[in-house]
TrEMBL record:
CDD domains named among the record's database cross-references: LolA
Gene3D superfamilies recorded: Lipoprotein localisation LolA/LolB/LppX
UniProt key word Cell membrane: no
InterPro entries, alphabetized: LolA/LolB/LppX, OM_lipoprot_carrier_LolA-like
Signal peptide interval: 1-23
tRNA processing listed as a keyword: no
Entry keywords, A to Z: Signal
Name of the protein in question: Outer-membrane lipoprotein carrier protein
One Pfam family, short name: LolA
Amino acid sequence: MPVSVRLAALAALPLGAALTAFAPRAPRQEPTAASVIDRASRAFSKAKTVRATFEQTLNNPVTGNESKASGEILLSQPNRVAVRFTQPSGDRVIGDGTWLWVYMPSAAPNQVIKLPAKGKGVTGVDALGDLLTAPRTRYTVTGGTAATVGGRATRVVTLVPKVDGQPIERAKVWVDDADDAVRQVEITDANGLVRTLRMTTWTLNASVPASTFRFEVPKGVRVVDRSALVGSR
């Protein structure tokens, strides 16, 4: 378009529109760590249920050992959780709101451990609930940098407990830019053990039967009650 024609076209525009045509675009504002974790927390708290499949990597920095597992996490708000492993097959952890049942036949086929659902030192089972329920009240939140998980654009934030002596030393949460889903969680406990959960699927308000959160002690399996040792919060 000739210069004279362009100038004539601009002259026909209102002054504000003409200035806007030459005004530089404002730089895109990067989300803050607080806004990222708030989005994830709101989406999580509004859901009655959560169903997610995961791949887990467990690293022990003391021994240098690494182990892998996979399975499914099912949550029913506010306090029921089921972790069912497909690898190792048959291992499971069930929280019925009162008790936490830990049954790991791959390692201890003849016993199940019974704990208070909210006992001291009981953490990591409901990692999502632990990190996404009122996160900025309980954690100092930093980060918010861009990262890609499983081909999804995310923001990663770091959470550090505000109160000393917690079972979790720090955690990282990768929050999906598009739908606020949690795509990955990395938890470092007080002993330095690092557990990474990469979510391969994430579904809110999925159909989850109530029976999912009932644990029936298998025949011949001994119940080891550790409620007295753990105590309540």
